[in-house]
Amino acid sequence: MTLLCKFARAEMMLHLRPRNLALSVSKRCYVQAYIIQTSQLSRKKLLNLKHLKRFSTDSIKTKLGEPVKQVNNIRRTKNNELRRLFLLAAPEKWRLIGAIAFLIISSTVTMAVPFCLGKIIDILYTNDQNKTKENLNKVCFALLGIFIFGGMCNFARIYLMSTTGHKITQSLRKKAYAAILSQETAMFDKVSTGELVGRLSGDAQLVSAAITSNISDGLRSGIMTTAGISMMFYVSPHLALVGLAIVPPVAAMGILYGRFVKKISKDVQNSLAVLNTTAEEKISNIRTVKAFAQELNEIENYRTKLQDLLQLCYKESFYRGIFFGMTGLSGNAIILSVLYYGGVMLSDSTITVGNLSSFLLYAAYVGISMGGLSSFYSELNKSLGASTRLFELIDRKPAIPIQGGKILEKELTGDIVFKDVSFTYPTRTESMILKDFNLHIPKNSVTAVVGPSGSGKSTLASLLLRLYDPVSGSVLLDGYNLRELDPCWVKQQIGFVSQEPILFNGTVRENITYGSKDAGDEEVREAAKQANVLEFIERMSDGLDTYVGERGITLSGGQRQRVAIARALIKNPKILILDEATSALDSESESLVQQALERATLGRTVLTIAHRLSTIRNADKIAVLDGGSVRESGSYDDLMALPNGLFRKLVQHQTAMLTSCRIVTRKLKLKPSCLRALRFDKYSTKVLKSHYGEVEVPDQTLSQYVFSKSENWKNRPSLTCGTTGRSYTFGMSKDFCRRGAEALLSNTGLRPGDRVGLLLPNVPEYSLAVHASLQAGLVVTFANPLYTAHELTRQFRSAKVRCIVTIPQLMETAQAVANNLENYDCTINIGGKAVPDKKIMGLESLLIPSQSIQLPEVKPDDLAVLPYSSGTTGVPKGVMLTHRNLVTNISQLMHPEIVKVNETTNDFQETVLTVLPFFHIYGFNMILNHTTLVGTHIVTMPKFTPQDYVECLIKYKPSVLFVVPSLLLFLVTHPEITAQHLSSVTQIFCGAAPMKKGLIDTFLQKINRQDCHISQGYGMTETSPGITLTPYTMPYEKSGSCGRLLPSTTARVVDLATNEEVSGPNQPGELLVKGPQVMKGYLDNQKATDEVIDSDGWLHTGDVVYYDEDEYFYIVDRTKELIKVKGNQVSPTELEYLILEIPGVADAAVVGIPDTFAGELPKAFVVRKPGFENVTPDHVQEYVNPKVAAYKKLAGGVTFVDAIPRNPSGKIMRNELKKIASSS
Fold this sequence. Notes:
By secondary structure, this protein is α/β, with parallel strands linked by helices.
């Protein structure tokens, strides 16, 4: 209370005491400053008494200089605001000057009315009637002309002021919008969207109105007031003094009211901003509101905020009512006093009726004009409040400019370095996100960052995009600090795909071209194609011009994500940032998005932020973040090898979560699909079952199944020799097989169950010979045409072959073998003549049956073929495969989620070019039989030569290629093969040996297209051959995998030491499989059969594999090929992949050589590329040895060779390399 009294006394001293009294100017100004400050406190009705302690007499003495500055600052701010308001109108000054000129004229006309009216009244009161009428006509006609002119001037004034107002509003909004978008991201963390939109719309309108229409009305009121008062004094000075006595107090009240209105206007605008923010946020997320049934709560929340705004409006209305009530009362008082005093003067004849009438009208005009001035002053203060908010925004200089800085002249390589970076978000300065952070992201590499939540993963993307600047340290791009480079140019080099992409309300085309406004229609379609957008957009009636709705709401999550990828790709960025772009998608959408991402990452520096650790297996480098720094760094396998590593713990934690969810699922008796719907990947720690379920197998023989649809395309080409052009249609092939089967039984001594040996290269007749034999009930065994007579004799004796089918070029070898076979019947010479005395039959004579016979009944479980397994791991053995085995495997490949089958139609047929041998089970069943089933045109090559292969690519334009890794490497490295040669290829299938992701990426870079899908499979001769295959919807991060289990296939992975099942995903072990495609056993070799197929029916593949959380399998090595170094197992494949990374290395193979101390040592055989003779053994060891554990180093040495010996299927013949090593 004492303090309050002191304050009151100080205020009285300010107003009552002379300037030379005890209170100094400084103190007086300080008190005045405090009064002004308290008057500007928003939403407070009473002063806070505790707050007044700061303003005690003692504290006043300590702040003598500050008060004067505060008062001056307040006045200067107001003056600056007014000055800036008028400066906004400067570009439109000529229009405004014209409007003001018209305003003066129209106001003058208006103010002449009372005077003229008074004169008319005096004329009416004249006694001379004739003169009255004459004068009245003249005056009225003159006034009519003046009024018309005044009306035209008024129109011009309003038009000019209104259009000027619109232009100023446009300019102001443009400046405000530019200022908003130019601000750094940190500002948007603090200021709500609704508030910014409010400033852009409402505040800009208020300010614009203040300097146009409001100024116009104010000037009009001012002119009318001045002119009215002047005329009042002209008509009657005494009466004017009486009437205007009330003006000073009304003016003072108007000034006070204006100050109050400015303050409360700002409060109303702030409250409106809060209201707009609430409405904008909830309406834009209406689906979330409705999903949680929060409509009533949000309505109540909005009502509460409206009530707060209403209270402010009530307050404004209350004071507004008082002010205008008082001004109205003042106006009426003026009129009453004028009427009274004027009546007295009229009775004394000191004023005429006309003059009194004129005076009263002038007085009314003055009253109205003063009300207009009050309104003008009130609105001006409102606009000052709004302008304060706008100018704060426009004047704010962004901490990070949107442009300006160095633009590199050379092409960006994409090398990124985070150097000693420390960072904290501006809204959370107490929380350090990164601290002395260091990370190198090499150019053209894929680097993944993982870590616990809040470790700073997404922060790296924000810093790289320069949405924020680090507190200390630097982010380097190609060695340049990002602060030195032009931010706009930097962002043009970066493509960003976030977890939840936002699309704008427009068409798909407009959203894609948002990444590059200069892109043409062809570029848009190409980006859409690469991102798999065309896959869904072509099904929509408007195509790329389809409207997506606000935030892309009419599209699914996967579709929005693909549009976002296209938006990133269209500007062809050198750097790509992927912030867990598939974590919120269903499995089908994820696959399509991953396909797009697989293409997008080629030839770019990629930073991927991962939460699901299985998605970054194939990253070149993984950085594990924790506590604001890099805890671990290395490849996936390196990090998993760390016993107590953080990455390993994260993987195990996710695995444990999956296991727990599976237990819950079983207890609740939920379907496995429920688990997938929750985005948990299905696996079992014991038996793995196919993701695709069971397959329905037709109860048919192989020939019945393969030719079951051939009538649909019987006139289409089926088999063509790529060298000679010899060709058969599907109709001819089917007829040939039937006639050949009848001839085999009628013209030879062969009977159902007998064995036929095929000694043929890849010729069209290969398929015909096989299926003719099978329809005759015979069993077929295949042989490598490069085998010696000794090797062939061993196989054909084992198979009990009674007939050999061959060509003239191999006839000598065939006859040498035939002479050593028991119970031999005949040799069939394809393309050659018959020699009856040597039991040689020509193809033409064979096709002329001696009589029409009934073909035997062949059952699906009958033995069909006897391929012999590869001899690289032991003596070849005959693999007994039934018709059902082979039909099952083809049916497994026909699953719609695995292979994208494009069956032949009247207008479409795919073409396959194959050089892979048909005597290999991969070439026989997957290429020859599977493609025949769907009506594909097969172009064969009997012998591989680069020239013939290139010519076939040009002539036949194949859409599908079947390769092994060595053939794909040939396509990548051969200088004569260009992207144009491969332009027709849309699918590539690779098998027989593992293929590394890097080779796939290099191939896709060469063809310069992203629409070619590469599938990789795994299988064995013993499994017909397929076990796994990568589906065409496989996510990009799975590249390098050999796929998932085929339908109706189960598997186990067992530890090599304990023979127990591994604990779960990512644990290597031997693969065991079961399925209807598994062989009956080895021919006449029960012991070997029992060694491979155990008593529970599991086939032991001998291959070391592991599977991930999504049940994608990865081949590590063969158990018999593992190198044992001091009891440790070394994978040759791992070392081979490392060697192939060395520039100048074309091929490599690693084998174990004997060592007295270690048991075995790894030895490398390397093939140099032409022109890289400078690659030495030391170079190879210096590159490999630092990257592996000590026992994996190439301690056995490095030897350069001209070629790595491989068998026809592309597998490395390690026994041959061991012989070379032992002889050196």
